[in-house]
Amino acid sequence: MRKQPKNNIAPDAIKAWRITASIFMVILWLIIIAGIVVSVIFHFPIIYSGIGAVIGLVCIYVFVFLIPKLRYKRWRYEIFEQEIYIQHGILIVTRTIIPMIRVQHVDTEQGPILKKYNLATVSISTAATTHEIPALLEEDASQLRDRISTLARVDEDDV
Amino acid sequence: MCKEQDHVKKNHLEKNTQIEQEVEVEGHFRKQDPDPSNPKDSLEKPRRLHPAAMYFNLIKVIKETIFGLGIGLVFTLKESLFYFVIFVSIFLLLLIVSSVLSWLRFTYRVEENELRIEQGVFIRKKRYISINRIHKIDLTADVVHRLFKLTKVQIDTASSGDGAEVMLSAVTIADGARLRQALQSGKKSTKMEKNQEDTKNPTKKITWKRLFIAGTTSGSVGFILIAMLAGFSQIEDLIPRKIYNSTFVWITSLGIVFIIGFIIVGLFVLWLLGIAGTMIKYGNFTIEKREKELFIKRGLLETKELTIPFDRIQAVGIEQSIIRQPFKFVRIFAVVAGGSFDQSEPFPVLFPILREKEAEQFLAQFTSEHNIATDTDLVSLDKRGRKYYLFSMSILFILGLIPVIYFFPAYSWIPIILIILSLTLGWLQHKDGGYFISGKRITIRRRRLNKVTITTYHRRIQSIEKSQHKLQAIEKMATTGISLIGSGGLGTHYTLRHLTDEDANKIADWYSYRKTEDENGI
């Protein structure tokens, strides 16, 4: 666990995450604009809406520009013969080891945004936990899924 | 051999096929030779539950609907007494009819290595469970059961979720025991010759004195108090204002001495209740080690029999609550995979109270492979970690202190005491944290409020993770967590915070199957 895992996830992940974040930002800004309109109509002090707008701008910077980039930079994975090694996290970096023989099943999943960039999410489940590798290229994801499920054979050890 | 693995795998992959509902099974199952001396043959005929099951069903339905109906009842009662009576009697009549019908329709039998349940009045439901898939058979008898010499049977497979797979609400004790024997002997495992084993198996029974100590140190006063306060805030609105006010005036007129006396007496009564509760729950606690399982029997009013197969035990732990710490008493529990999730006891208690130094011997005797490393073996946390514990425990109270000093300076002693307590706890948390690796076994000790030491095996750990935040990374510290399978198929996680990076890597390398060049650090 000294070296970080080798493989990056697909670079398009940043774009996909930015779109997702933008959708939330649009909703947030609709609320902020509604707040401004209401305070203009009813002559509420505009200062609160102003603060809201500033926070909204900061949110756009943080969630749309900063976080996806950092998240991409941190997200790494590596598949070994006998285990899967994952690293993620922005402030708290977490590295996880999942032995192949503990893997119960592997899913790939694709929403509309990921689909646009031909990406897919792979989730790996053990009997106790589920781990996700987000936004891999579609063919990488299905390859990975197949590879894990062939490697994850039933072991002699009981659970 | 990999039967257990299959169970869990099934659990995830083929949950729906595990219990074959509405499936006509051809007779291609291994049929055991009929053995006339074996009482299980009589179980092959469909059997009904004991008629008392109707009563239990009635109670259950009433319990479930009382809140919803209660509102309706109150309204009708306000309108007129006549309608109220009619409403209630129709409801009861329907209930009784449906209870009788569902009792008539409910049958169980053991046939062709399967437990077959058929039930349902309008929608007939058949549930066939292969005996090999059954993990756990619990017999429970509450007061009413015991009155009629009955028992409740709960049968679990590996599938997740709360509640038992099959619940027979009332069968006679003899039938229950026979059913259990049939289901267990049906497994390909060795037969349980119960009467022979009883004599030679190691058993341990709780003494009355110990039970009393367990009660006095259970710390349930706090829980009861919180429950009562919560309950009170709920019913406060229902109490008429007038009574509430006059009581309040009456209490305040008594003077401070009386009030304090009142509180002390109240707490004492709660404490006694707590003792009684513990004694009722764990009275006659007996644990018996059988060939392939642990058998636990407990309870004064409600007797409960648990079987814990050894190969389902994921980890064994020792818990020392903060109240019991000065008296050096501990509690032994197990983390068991699968089965139904029991809210009141997610981890089955293997023994409710033991002296600290008896624990090791107990574990050696009953769960021989899960010996827990003693204090001296543990690698304790580096002192660099202490400040994180102190900080994370006390930060809330320190932040709370500022507004209190500002607004209510007279009360600033409250947060100060809390800060001191939380710092002490943080200090203890750091002092007690530690780990130990020996062969394929790992022991982790950590404290949140209570000190918990668990030991488990390499092959039981589902995944392991190491996390680092910025400060930890700079200081070469880390946090390590292991994940195990808990009851109800839910994961349970044990985290050891703020150990050195080196130790975290040691644990990770121990766990990792890959022995690569980055090994050379050790």
Give a quick rundown of the structure.
The complex is a heterodimer of chains A (159) and B (522). Chain A is α+β, with helices and mostly antiparallel strands.
Q: Whole-number radius of gyration of chain A?
A: 21 Å
Shape of chain A: elongated
End-to-end gap of chain B: 35 Å
Largest interface: A-B, 33 and 46 residues
Transmembrane segments (chain B): 55-75, 81-104, 211-235, 247-273, 388-406, 412-428
Protein name (chain B): Putative membrane protein
Biased composition (Basic and acidic residues) (chain B): 25-34
Keywords (chain B): Membrane, Transmembrane, Transmembrane helix
Structural description of this entry:
- The complex is a heterodimer of chains A (159) and B (522).
- Chain A is built from four helices and seven strands.
- By secondary structure, chain A is of the alpha+beta class.
- The longest helix of chain A has 30 residues, at 12-41.
- Residues 155-159 of chain A have low confidence and may be disordered.
- By secondary structure, chain B is of the alpha+beta class.
- Among the domains of chain B are: 211-282; 286-381 and 433-519, no CATH class; 383-430.
- In chain B, the strands form four sheets. In chain B, strands 8-7-6-12-11-10-9 form a seven-stranded antiparallel beta sheet. Chain B has a seven-stranded antiparallel beta sheet with strand order 15-14-13-19-18-17-16.
- In chain B, strand 3 (107-111) and strand 4 form a beta hairpin.
- Chain A binds chain B through residues 1-3, 80-83, 89, 91-100, 102, 104-105, 125-129, 131, 154-159, and chain B through 1-9, 11-13, 311, 337, 459-470, 473, 483-486, 489-493, 504-505, 508-509, 511-514, 518, 521.
- Strand 4 of chain A pairs antiparallel with strand 20 (463-469) of chain B, so a sheet runs across the interface.
- Chain B: Residues 103-182, 285-364, 434-511 form the YdbS-like PH domain.
- Chain B: InterPro entries: UCP026631, YdbS-like_PH.
- Chain B: The chain crosses the membrane at residues 55-75, 81-104, 211-235, 247-273, 388-406, 412-428.
- Chain B: Residues 25-34 have a biased composition (Basic and acidic residues).
